[in-house]
Design brief:
The chain contains 11 helices and 9 strands. Helix 6 links the parallel strand 5 and strand 6. The longest helix has 21 residues.
C-alpha cells in the first residue's frame, strides 16, 4: 500500500488503500479491547486538532485516537482564540508550523479548507479533513464502512470489501458531507449505493453521481431491500430556505420509524452519523433497535482514526508496535 501524506477526501483512497486502513483498524480495535489501551507508535509526534466548527464526537474521537497512539495532542478551538479576533487560516497554519505540528486535523465551515491547508505550503505536516463545509468527511465514511464490514463479515474480516452489498443513504443529501464521502468510499469498496431524498434535498448534479436516485422512501426500501440504511441528520443550521413543509411532515414521509423498520430485512443495519434528531429523521424505535449501529459507529470511530493516523504518520513501519 502506497504511503499517504494527507486524507482530504474519500476519493483519495483506492480499493487497496481503503481496505488497508480498515485492516489496520481491526488491529486497533483489538488494542482498544485490551486493559491497557496504549501504543507507543506516535511517541514524539505532535498532532493538532484545529476545529473551526463545534463538534463533540469527531473531536473527542480524534483526541482519544491520538492519545492512545502516544502522540502529543494540542486542541485548538477557533472560539476564544486569535481566530475569533480575525486571524486568518494562513496565520494560524504558520503558527502551528512554527510549533512543529506533524499533523493537523481540521474541521472548517468552508468547503475546501482542508485542501487549501494541504497544498498551500503554509504547513509541512499531514492534513486530515475532519469535515469541511458541505464537502466531505472521509473518516466518517471509513468508520461507516468499517462498521458495515464488521457487522456483515464479522470482526477480523481483513482483506474484504463491501462487494454485493446495497446501501441506502436517506435524507438531507444536499447539505451532507457524510453522504458525499460515503458515496465515494462505498463505490470504491464495491457496494451498490442508493440515494433517497426529497427532490429539494438533492444537489443539482446528483444525477451524475454513481448512485441510483429515489424520491420515495417506502418504495425504495421495498424495491431495493438494502443491507444498510444510513439516515442523515437534517442540517437545519445550513438551511437558508424552506426545503420541506414542516418537521412533522418530514418525519412522517422521510423518517425511519417502527413501520419502516418492519419493511426491512431482519438483519438490515440502521446507521446514523450523529448527532441524531430523534423524532425527526429517526425515532427511538429505530435508533434503539437491535438493527441500530449508532453506538458501534462511535466506538469504531476511535479505531478507524487510530488507523488513519498510523497510516499517515507511521505507515512505513512494518508492524504495529505492541
Amino acid at each position: 500500500m502506497s504511503q499517504l501524506k494527507h486524507l482530504l477526501s474519500a476519493g483519495d483512497l483506492d480499493r487497496e488503500a481503503a481496505i488497508g486502513i480498515l485492516d489496520i483498524a481491526e488491529e486497533m480495535a483489538d488494542v482498544n479491547n485490551r486493559d491497557i489501551k496504549k501504543l507507543p507508535t506516535l511517541r514524539g509526534k505532535t498532532v493538532v486538532n484545529l476545529f473551526f466548527e463545534d463538534s463533540t464526537r469527531t473531536r473527542i474521537s480524534f483526541e482519544l485516537a491520538e492519545k492512545r497512539l502516544s502522540a502529543d495532542v494540542i486542541n485548538f478551538s477557533a472560539k476564544g482564540s486569535s481566530v475569533s479576533k480575525g486571524e486568518s487560516l494562513k496565520d494560524t497554519a504558520q503558527t502551528l508550523e512554527a510549533m512543529g505540528a506533524d499533523a493537523v486535523v481540521i474541521r472548517h465551515h468552508a468547503s475546501g479548507a482542508a485542501n487549501v491547508l494541504a497544498h498551500s505550503g503554509w504547513i509541512q505536516g499531514s492534513i486530515i479533513n475532519a469535515g469541511d463545509g458541505t464537502h466531505e468527511h472521509p473518516t466518517q465514511a471509513l468508520l461507516d464502512a468499517f462498521t458495515i464490514r464488521r457487522r456483515i463479515h464479522g470482526s477480523g474480516s481483513n482483506g474484504k470489501d463491501l462487494s454485493g452489498l446495497k446501501v441506502a443513504i436517506v435524507g438531507d443529501v444536499l447539505h451532507s458531507r457524510v453522504a458525499r464521502s460515503n458515496l465515494l468510499l462505498l463505490n470504491t469498496l464495491g457496494a451498490e449505493v442508493h440515494l433517497v431524498a426529497p427532490p429539494t434535498l438533492f444537489p443539482a448534479d446528483a444525477s451524475k453521481w454513481q448512485a441510483e436516485l429515489h424520491f420515495n422512501l417506502d418504495a425504495a426500501l421495498n424495491d431495493v431491500k438494502p443491507d444498510a440504511v444510513m439516515m442523515l441528520r437534517v442540517q437545519a443550521e445550513r438551511m437558508n430556505a424552506s426545503y420541506f413543509p414542516s418537521e412533522r411532515e418530514y418525519s412522517r414521509i422521510w423518517g425511519m420509524n417502527a413501520d419502516r423498520l418492519a419493511l426491512l430485512k431482519p438483519d438490515t443495519l440502521i446507521m446514523h452519523p450523529g448527532p441524531m434528531n430523534r423524532g425527526l429523521e429517526i425515532t427511538a424505535a429505530a435508533a434503539d433497535s437491535k438493527n441500530s449501529t449508532v453506538l458501534e459507529q462511535v466506538a469504531n470511530g476511535v479505531s478507524v482514526r487510530m488507523a488513519v493516523l498510523y497510516q499517515l504518520l507511521s505507515g512505513e513501519r512494518a508492524n504495529i508496535d505492541a
